[in-house]
Amino acid sequence: MDSPDTIIKESASMEEHESPYMSKTCSMSEELLLEDQLRRKLKFFFMNPCEKFRARGRKPWKLCIQILKIALVTIQLVLFGLSNQMVVTFKEENTIAFKHLFLKDYKDNKDPRDDTYAVYRQEDVYNHITFTITRYLELRNISVGNHAYDREEGGRHGMTVCQYFYKRGSIFPGNETFDIDPNIEKECFFVEPMTPINDPTLDEQFWNLTLDFYRLVTVEIMFKLKAINLQTIRHHELPDCYDFTVTITFDNKAHSGRIKITLDNDIDIQECREWHVSGSIQKNTHYMMIFDAVIIITCISSLTLCIRSVVNGIHLQREYVMYVQQRFSKAVSWSDQMELVNGWYILIIVSDILSIVGSVLKMEIQAKSLSSYDVCSILLGTSTMLVWLGVIRYLGFFEKYNILILTLRAALPNVMRFCCCAAMIYLGYCFCGWIVLGPYHTKFRSLNTVSECLFSLINGDDMFTTFSIMQRKSYLVWLFSRVYLYSFISLFIYMVLSLFIALITDTYDTIKNFQKDGFPESELHNFISECNDLPTSGRYREDEDMTISLMCCCER
């Protein structure tokens, strides 16, 4: 029999041989468990809300909040749009009223770009200025609106008539000589409201106004009026007080014998100083502000949940990248990394921020502390658009509804490259048309109008008119215009536009084939596909079983 010492030595020797093996076995088991757990995390990340509910029992709060937010934000936008519509209508109608009140022989024109209202004689210029001053002084007796003169505390108020002219100018077109100093000087006189028309002071000021038409650049008449928009009462809103800054300009910059007359109306909306409205309008205003506050709280909740989801996706991305680098010693492709950064959540985050800021501005507008209707409408309109675009994410979970998203995502790189090439040709035609056809064609007078005209031609709009209104003063330019227009229309409609549609169509056909035969798997999805655990398997639930088993393995 072996002695006790021999047995102890043999036992120690066996432990020395078995310990590294057991440690290696424990390390491999731990690695397999971590790999399996990572696959389940990634698979859970790409599940839809219903599958996530079955996998871990988590209620789809983000989905519920998005559905609620769509309804609330849409209602808010409609209500604000109706209110903003009244503001725009009030401004436009007052502008039309001012044109009829202060411009002599003015007639409505349906085309806002038409600048045919002009004068051609010196006597007409003086008559129009006299007419404007007279109508301003008689405003209370002739206006059917609730207009009143502006009265600034501690400062002057009324009408300012100013002429701007070159400092020195001796012009003799007959001798083809001139001597001019291009520095602009200004000369003004002031008209107090409520001044009698036959007041000698007024006659002295006006008749001392001498216009040297050779040097005259512009004559500018500016005054301020006040009004109250009472139509909002019918929509249970407090009326706003408006300050109108009316500017009438006699433009003689071209010195062409034609002085164009324009009227510009700028508004400033302010809170009325003293007001009293019988009824429940004030109460309705409080209800609207409470409604806006509910939208802000909803958007903050959505923002918090989406930020948490984006952060979790970034952590999961880092975990997967580190695992691939340590296990396979290679880098993860950029496309696989970006799949773990959910762009839809970023879209929702942006829409939530815009909606929160827009709702705060809307509350300030309702409280009559601000009047930034344009800024508020941009914020609320953009946020509502992004909210509705975010609905496509949830439709994308259904195979028959996600073909639009898949087609756009697959075609976008090729479309962007194609558009960059087409834009070079388009810009070349824009510059060429502007410099050659501009003097002879009204649609080519500026780069902006050239671009609008050519874009309309691409879509087949207004073709005959574009051809017909070309002036024939220069036969060479007229012939060039025909070559220019025919070549542009043929190139862009028959080639560029057709190729653009073909890109989308080919991508659409490819996506349809993928839906039948299966999509090509990336390395990330190949890694996830090895996890066969169903959402109802119970292995996705957050418990400590994995941690406990891992600790027991290591203890052994």
Give a brief rundown of this model:
The protein is an alpha+beta fold. The chain folds into three domains: 56-83 and 281-395; 103-270, no CATH class; 403-529.
Question: Secondary structure elements and their pairing?
Answer:
Elements: H1 4-45, H2 49-56, H3 61-102, E1 118-119, H4 122-137, H5 139-142, E2 148-149, E3 159-172, E4 177-191, H6 200-207, E5 216-229, E6 240-251, E7 259-270, H7 281-328, H8 334-339, H9 343-366, H10 373-395, H11 403-437, H12 447-458, H13 463-468, H14 475-517, H15 523-529, H16 545-555
Antiparallel strand pairs: 1-7, 2-5, 3-4, 3-5, 5-6, 6-7
Helix pairs in contact: 1-7, 1-16, 3-7, 3-10, 7-9, 9-10, 11-12, 11-14
Tell me about this structure.
There is one protein chain. Helix 3 runs antiparallel to helix 10 and helix 7 runs antiparallel to helix 9. It is built from 16 helices and seven strands. Helix content is 60%, strand content 13%. Strands 1, 2, 3, 4, 5, 6 and 7 form a seven-stranded antiparallel beta sheet that branches. The two termini are 32 Å apart. The longest helix is centred in the middle third of the chain and has 48 residues, at 281-328. Mean pLDDT is 80; it is low at 14-24 and 543-556. By secondary structure, the chain is an alpha+beta fold. The protein has three domains: 56-83 and 281-395; 103-270, no CATH class; 403-529.
